[in-house]
Design goal:
Length: about 250
């Protein structure tokens, strides 16, 4: 992970594919994050990239547009927490990648995409969809959400074998505007930061930032970008899902 302004567009580059993992997080237990998807995408040259995603329907997974742009195909594994444990998880191959038409790689505006699966994803205690948000007026500042992913464990560290997670607090957009020059915080992004070096780090891209309220889990953000070396020094940017709920539902209906 490089420490230039490296809007890590948390992830998809041949140099640091999958860099986005959770730094200083905790190991997840099987079934703890049933909506979490492990994505493997390939471009026309056959290069493989790792991203995260969230199950939102039996045939659809949502991720970041910077994960799908330029990709030729993808598959996901759901219902697992250990990548090398062949007894966990089920693999599904996508037949369609739907990248937001207005995605801008320079500013990471509209960093949202969908993957469609012709075979129904089978739900059970370890595999289940997460709710999409509906309240555009909800004040998120000060709230704590959970981010999870299989990205790198930190600067110069390997990618996670076990799904990692940590808690982040939502900050006012002005905190991120001071750090990021190109990424616009115009109400379509969430600015969030962890404590004690807890952070996302490449390979977590597209993964979930979730709100937990009793038994309800809601997908608030998608891992989009960060600045620094995965050590949690700076706040990070997430696609604000509620601003794209209508787009997501519209694409799912077509």
């Amino acid at each position: 992970m490089k420490s230039l302004l490296l809007t890590i567009a948390l992830a998809v580059s041949a140099t640091y594919a999958g860099i986005t993992r959770i730094s200083n997080g905790e190991d997840a237990k099987l079934g703890q994050f049933p909506y979490q998807a492990f994505l493997q995408l390939n471009n026309e040259e056959g290069k493989i990239f790792r991203c995260g995603g969230s199950i939102i329907d039996k045939n659809w997974i949502v991720t970041a547009a910077h994960c799908t742009i330029g990709m030729a195909g993808a598959y996901v594994i759901v219902g697992m927490v250990q990548v090398d444990n062949k007894t966990q998880g089920t693999k599904y191959v996508s037949d369609k990648l739907v990248t937001n038409e207005n995605f801008d790689h320079a500013t990471l505006e509209n960093d949202v995409a969908l993957l469609h699966f012709p075979q129904d994803i089978q739900f059970n205690e370890n595999v289940a969809p997460i709710n999409l948000p509906t309240d555009k007026n909800e004040d998120l500042v000060g709230k704590k959400f959970i981010v999870s992913g299989y990205g790198h464990l930190g600067r110069d560290k390997p990618k996670a074998n076990t799904l990692q997670y940590t808690e982040l607090s939502v900050l006012d957009d002005s905190k991120c505007e001071k750090i990021y020059n190109h990424e616009k915080f115009d109400g379509t992004k969430i600015c969030a930061k962890g404590e004690g070096g807890k952070s996302t780090c490449g390979g977590d891209s597209g993964g979930p930032l979730a709100k937990y309220e009793k038994d309800n889990k809601t997908l608030m953000g998608l891992v989009s970008f960060g600045k620094g070396s995965c050590e949690g020094h700076n706040p990070e940017g997430f696609t604000k899902v509620v601003e794209y709920t209508d787009w997501i539902k519209g694409k799912m209906a077509n």
